[in-house]
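Our consortium's second objective concerns turning raw sequence data into structural hypotheses that experimental partners can test. To show how far this objective has progressed, the report includes one record in full. It was chosen at random from the queue rather than selected for favorable results. The single chain below, 121 residues long, was entered without modification.
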Amino acid sequence: MARKKPNIITPHNGIATANSLVNAVIDDFLIYSHTPDSISLDGELFTLTLSNKKLVYQEIKIDKDKDYFYIYLQGILKDRTAYEIEDNGSDLVITFKEGIALEPNDIVANDFLVRGKIVSR
């Protein structure tokens, strides 16, 4: 007995709409890289500011904004438990809760790389 062909309903017909759907899915998974616009140091704790940036939320509900972020210091991925992220309405502010460098005074903004679903406002 031959296998029955599945009846798959496709909401799109035509190559242009299919391409549009594929491009929308690809865009939804893009991760952008940013260097902080400013950093400040309080003792050994850093605060990074991404000016005029916001998170791009997906339809999937997340527990924490940190699920969208990867922060690197001099190429080394920092643990997500080491920082908090706040969107203050105009900027994204990342505040570290623990020391992350042996010589914090030698660290400059270009030493950090913030990757995630972050775009300009």
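The partners drew two points from this record. Residues 31-120 form one domain. The chain has one domain: 31-120. Both points have been shared with the crystallography group to help prioritize constructs.
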